[in-house]
Write a structure and sequence with these properties.
There is one protein chain. It is built from three helices and three strands; from the N terminus they run αββαβα. By secondary structure, the protein is an alpha+beta fold. Strands 1-2-3 form a three-stranded antiparallel β-sheet, covered by helices on one side. The C terminus is likely disordered.
């Protein structure tokens, strides 16, 4: 299960990078650290508030542009894709293609 969780984090990181976000860490676990300002002028607190309206919880606040996404072993791949699609819609990124990284069972 941990392998699937970490694979979902890598999938999330790849999708965010595809949209132009800078992933700050090497994704080896279930955490993805991202510089939001690298892909959008939208303030982090606005992005996190809009994602929360879709039940996607991401920490953030005023005065910072970095945040952390965390996957969970019970989070299915389609929820990661839903998160990526929601972010793409919010920042107006209409070029997001599906990246299919192999799932680890």
């Amino acid at each position: 299960l941990m392998g699937r969780d970490h694979g979902n984090a890598r999938h999330l990181a790849a999708g965010l990078q595809e949209m132009g976000f800078t992933v700050i860490n090497e994704v080896e676990t279930n955490m993805v650290f991202v510089d939001i300002a690298s892909a959008t002028d939208m303030p982090l607190n606005t992005l996190t508030r809009e994602l929360a309206k879709q039940n996607i919880m991401v920490p953030g606040g005023e005065g910072t542009t970095a945040t952390r996404f965390v996957t969970h072993l019970q989070t299915p791949r389609d929820q990661v894709d839903r998160t990526l699609d929601a972010i793409a819609d919010l920042i107006g990124c209409h070029t997001r293609a599906r990246i299919d990284l192999p799932s680890v069972a």
